[in-house]
Give the backbone structure.
Amino acid sequence: MSRDIHLYLSLIPEALIASMLTPEEFGVYYAAGTAKKARGQAVFFEVDPDFRHDYFRIEEGIQRCVPHEDGSPKASIYISVYRVLEHVPLSELGELYLVTADGRVLGLDASETVPESTRGLHLYQEIAPVHPMVVSSLGPTAFYELIVKNPNILLRLPAICFAELRLGDLAEDPEEGNVGDLPYSRVEHLRQCLVALSTKTVDAKMVNRTAPATFSYRTIKSGIYVGNESDLLFFPFPTVEELRADHYRWFRSAWST
Amino acid sequence: MIATQAWAVIALFAGFVAVGVALWLYRWVHQQDPGSERAQEVASWIREGARTYLGRLYVVLTLMAAGMGFIIAMVFAFDIEHLGTEAVRIAPARGLAMALAFLAGALCSAIAGYMGMTIAVEANVRSATAAQESLSGAFKVAFYAGSVMGLAMVGLAIIGMSTIYLLTGDPEIILGFSFGASALALLAKAGGGIYTKTADIAADLVGKIEIGIPEDDPRNPAVVADNVGDNVGDVAGMGADVFDSYVASTVAAMLLGASIFAADPVLQLRHVLFPLMLSTLGIVASLIGIRLVRVEKGGRPGRALNSGTIFTTAIFAALATALVLLGGYSLGLLWATLAGLVTGVVIGFTSDYYTSARFRPVVETARVSGSGAAINIITGFSYGLVSIVPSIVGIVMATLLSYYLTDVYGISGIYGVGISAVGMLSISGMIVSSDAYGPIVDNARGIAEMAGMSQEVIDTTDVLDAAGNTAKAITKGFAISAAALTVLALFAAYAEVVGARGIALVISLRDPVVVAGVLLGAVTPPLFSALTMLSVTHNAFDMIEEVRRQFEERPGILAGTEPPDYAACVGLAARGALASLVWPAFLAVALPLLVGFVLGPEALGGFLGGSIFTGVIFALLMSNAGGLWDNAKKYIEAGRFGGPGSDAHKAGVVGDTVGDPFKDTAGPSLNTLITVMSLVSSLFAPVIAALHLFR
């Protein structure tokens, strides 16, 4: 049986990959199904298989994406591992897949609208192309505009994918607010960074410059944002109730770590 | 009023009633819906694993029982009264009776364990299936299945003791029965404890920590061994543990009755049978209490179990009062009974204070976990040390109250201590029923997860499981304090048996031989703990390598495209646990004999004293600290102090892993260790009194 070739834009690490696996199969393979110990959390977009761009040698990659000698499908051909996100138009992106470390896959569709910013302070985990953890007084849209569209900022990115994370009580009361179930390391430092937003003239402050791109899915607040100089897409994250009811296996896996 | 002697027959009848009800409940549980094909398949893995382990365990036990039985038959074939003199005669009938009693004790304990295990591995899937309909239905299945263990245990114990008494009229022969039960209990408890924690640690460290898969995930190769471990450790192991304390306390009090009232045959008979009467009334109270336990729609299983224990306690207290008043017994015996009964329940609930997430020790340990694993461990260990105090105070109060309140009424206080131990253990039927419920619902939760049942079912089994954890903590506290009082009574019985051979036992700390015995005894529980915990780490190391190997060589396991090799882990756990039992068993049986035959009865008395003191302290510390660490981790997992994945959680996981062999391997096995050593000493006391190197 012939299999279609899929294109995936991986964010951890940033890469464009051709594969004969469906998104669900690819998620399991990418996070867990390899004997090379190259396992762990994965976040990727499905990309329109007809997508082509001069920056990438996509045809060459697709031609190499053939079944193994035993007939099993080719799991991955890396086409590019550098500056991928900025070269893929957002119109080419399909579903966003969040894969837990043990291979449970959750697909998210883009929303037609980007939500209004909520009150209080914000915490962002940048996923690609760089991945620091940042606090900001700006809502997600303003934060994206600051990083990607503001020509005057020193640290500017051509594209960005980030998740807005929960701050709980700290969003309103960084000094005294209850940490609750927020699993962040060095909470006191996080508090100081949040306090600094109100005492210094900065819109954003880096909390952790060495943060890995992986993060606990249960900390996602509103969803995941991806934007470049022309567009911003928002992938809303389901509520806990929706996850428990409709994606229980994924929920169990994501909430236990 | 019923003739005194008839009470032995009534006790026998009550034992048969208890076993009959257990069999009826067994049948009822078996008739419940076993669920979907997938659920039955998952349950069959656990069932087969449990049977494999039990089969191997019972082969080892049969060999051990045959060997010990032969030794007992040989030793007691000599006329003990004249041992060491030229007038010694050979009395093979007594040796044979003692050996048969020993074998009967081991057999009854084995049957109770087998019944409990067999129904537990049938009930788990039925409880999970019933949870699809209602919480109350699932609770009923699990609790009635637990009751099979509770009632079979007390029923078989009473049948054994009353039959031997009716046949021989000699409480010392029943001591052989008790030794048989205890020897099996030691191996079942220690072996089950090693098995369950080997599997638990391997499943957690590789599955949850390294790979990141959730609890009870069917892709984990160690998950079935983990579920089997719940049964072999907490059903068969804990059942055997309480069985041995139950029998030992009754026998110790009967022996004390026979010795203290030897001058008056009528009084002697009344006080030899009084412990058996109390145990009989305990069965009646437990039967009523079990019937009263139920969860209505929207009810709370934990409250139902606790209410059942309190109802049973109250019923037993009323029955014991009636027995004392109508039977013309001294009121001192009633106070001694009630002192033991109330102390047992209070100590059980005190353990709950130190291990429940509703109270400060667990919350504080969870709170400081954000500072790292070392702080978590220091805090948990410290609270574990503090937790010893109320239990020891309880045991001290029960001992002093029962002693002096009996003494005031003109009866030897030491008999009162023995009776208080019987009073405490009289409601064992109910206590074990609640305890055995725990692993059944734990398994039900695992089966629901592995069989892909709905989230609502898993939520229901979570509620049932939480109640089981509380019952488990209470039972551990109860079992340790009961064992402590029992061995104090056995200690007194030992002194009486030695005294009956013309040696006035003077245990003075000014005597270097006694000091030597105390120190050797004191070091035995720590050494035993070390041996069992090292067995866990050794076996867990092997299983961790096996789980890693499966994940690395067969990527399809994690991808969900091929099943893991569950049997490999089950086999590793079983082989490892059984191979690890040799030295702990040797310590328990051989060391007291060695001390007795070499250093003499005084040194052996000191040895028992030393082992009782450190044994009780270590057992309380390890059980409570382990339970505290476990629940501190769960408290964090429930979304406090950062929740899963936080630094506090990582520290909590380390603390929980350290505490696992504390609370489920070494800690609870120490009860049985000190009981076995006390029984060996009491049983062989006449021989040691006649033959020893020093003095």
User: Anything to note?
Assistant: Chain B touches chain A at residues 208, 211-215, 217, 219, 370, 449, 454-455, 458, 552-553, 555-556, 558-560, 637, 639-647, 649 (CB under 8 Å). The mean pLDDT of chain B is 89.
